[in-house]
């Protein structure tokens, strides 16, 4: 008989993507539930949008403009181009424009979901990731921006980031526009002029914490080659233009008042820039009135955000505690959230300016931060496993699991081949099961079950001799009618 020569598919994830297993998915769901509680407490309503949008609706706002289709995964269908959403903000603008007559104004919504970016993957940088957003559409006052920042601080504390381990850093695109006017890369009479150069400047400043001053200076000039040899084209600014931009990123002083004074000096000739400084001052005052002082929220001119649709205040949440990198060197964890005001995004659909502001939390980054903060953690316990000693009595075993589940205890029956009992216990170990329940023919006749404490058994096996093992209560016999109570007591003693 001829062999099947068809090529078998490789069992591997595509480059830039990854799979998530039980504990990761469970921990994420728990985190999202806590975040949703804060958003809900602030009066925001949940929204789900389609994962697919038209390319026209998404617009061209991604930082990596050198990739095809502006960094999105897109395809043509019926003479129209569709794409996976690259964030949750552009779909919100479409939703508000489409349903604005039925929505309250302002419209306060939060959304949690997957986004996709057709970007170059790297360590810790994936093409598919999870975001958690909250936005207010229709509120022109920067009080909405101050509220978003306060809410972000509350979220970080709610998920376990202690006060002192995070900082909300705030800036204003209007201030940066004033600086760009001074640097000669923004012409108020022709906003489209120098648009490409401004985009490069924005992305360069946004990488300041990663590339340092020299790396940013190179991107402001002719360009930069990274460690892999890839070359990134620069903005082509002259040295004196670059100095003006760099002075802006270094404008932070010891106090908010001193920082605002320095920014006022840099944008003195720009009406837009002066308006941006005033907005920053107002946000600081509003946050201070609520108890969010410089130890939690800070005005920082180095924050610009890479996306091109921001029009006013921008903000980032940064974790300040140190972790060890892959080479054992200490470093700060860095940014886990960002957002800002985007008053022109809905206007693309309606022709009318609709003010909007919001923030996006990087859920995977936050999960990684919490894991790094706590260090090695004990894996979450799996379900209680009911072993099968007699196939003919499967109904009895299923009844045991049902009783446990009805009592709020996670439980399952072993559904593999029960012939080898050792394999059942190996399965329970792989499932991180705390207890295995055993009832053979003899136990059934006597109306009892055996409860094997797998956690205690593993500890004893690691530290005790065989003789010591025999004296330890890693397994005990209890009446069948006491099954639920005894399991609950054992779990409580091990929690």
Automatic annotation (TrEMBL):
Any one Gene Ontology cellular component term annotated for this protein: cytoplasm
Transmembrane segments: none
Domain Aminoacyl-transfer RNA synthetases class-II family profile: 1-383
Presence of keyword Oxidoreductase: no
GO MF terms, alphabetically ordered: ATP binding; histidine-tRNA ligase activity
Protein origin, superkingdom: Bacteria
Subunit (UniProt): Homodimer.
Chain coiled-coil ranges: none
Catalytic activity, EC: 6.1.1.21
CDD domains cross-referenced by the UniProt entry: HisRS-like_core, HisRS_anticodon
Uppermost EC category: ligase
Similarity comment: Belongs to the class-II aminoacyl-tRNA synthetase family.
Organism taxonomic ancestry: Bacteria, Pseudomonadati, Pseudomonadota, Alphaproteobacteria, Rhodobacterales
Residues the record lists as binding L-histidine: 87-89, 117, 131, 135, 305, 309-310
Entry keyword set: Aminoacyl-tRNA synthetase, ATP-binding, Cytoplasm, Ligase, Nucleotide-binding, Protein biosynthesis
InterPro entries the record matches: aa-tRNA-synth_II, aa-tRNA-synth_II/BPL/LPL, Anticodon-bd, Anticodon-bd_dom_sf, His-tRNA-ligase, HisRS-like_core, HisRS/HisZ, HisRS_anticodon
Organism: Pseudoroseicyclus tamaricis
Keyword Ligase appears in the UniProt entry: yes
Catalytic activity: tRNA(His) + L-histidine + ATP = L-histidyl-tRNA(His) + AMP + diphosphate + H(+)
Protein name: Histidine--tRNA ligase
Annotated localization: Cytoplasm
